[in-house]
Amino acid sequence: MSDSENDSEIYFSVKFLGRVEVTCPVGMEILMEAAAALQKEKKKKNKVHLFLSRRSIDILEFKTKFMKYSCTLSSVSFCAVHQIQSKLFGFMAKHPALDSHHCYVFQSTKFSHLLVSVMCDAVKASRRSDSVRGSRDLVVEALRHKNKLLQRENAELRNKLQGKAGIDSSEEEMDNSETDQPTSHVRFNSGRDATSLQRNF
């Protein structure tokens, strides 16, 4: 996961199962059928960069950075995590030139729920941008919310570790008072990924 310097574009490295034309532009059942059809083809899952910006969702080849697909946020009609296989997620979007819709399916071990949440916020922000000028970019806001959750959890873990370190250091001070040796202070830092956010659009 990466955040760009201008706070308006982020990207995730995920595996791309492919895209398939669908008869209906919304619905969990349609998404699951599309995923099943792509999995049945047994094609190699290509690693891609999934870029999210204020205007579009872009799918780029991981190594070459070649643009495979680009979907404007206004064309996205549905986004969700697979109901059974939580590592799979996808979105549906209208073809830019034809009267048809495609479902794009991806696989991510850690970020499927977070990506769906971010894409939902991005789509909602794009639909409100005409009427709400100067509003904060909700794509970035969703990531900041994720960061707050991680910071809160990190702080709790740090407090627990420092509490344990306090017990250890008090015992060490007692030992050092007997030997007149200076005490050492250790700062503990720890962090781990929190549970991914989940929200269907």
What is the structure about, briefly put?
This protein has 201 residues and is α+β, with helices and mostly antiparallel strands. The chain has three helices and eight strands.
Describe the structure in your own words.
- This protein has 201 residues and is α+β, with helices and mostly antiparallel strands.
- 36% of the residues lie in helices and 28% in strands.
- Strands 1, 2, 3, 4, 5, 6, 7 and 8 form an eight-stranded antiparallel sheet that branches.
- Strand 3 (46-53) and strand 4 form a beta hairpin.
- It starts with a strand and ends in a 22-residue tail after the last helix.
- The model is unreliable at 1-7 and 181-201 (pLDDT under 50).
- Residues 179-201 have a biased composition (Polar residues).
Q: Helices and strands in order, then pairings?
A:
Layout: E1 2-3, E2 9-22, H1 28-41, E3 46-53, E4 56-61, E5 67-72, E6 76-81, E7 88-94, E8 101-107, H2 112-128, H3 138-179
Antiparallel strand pairs: 1-2, 2-3, 2-8, 3-4, 4-5, 6-7, 7-8
Helix pairs in contact: 2-3
Domain PID: 12-110
Protein name: PID domain-containing protein
Pfam family, one: PID
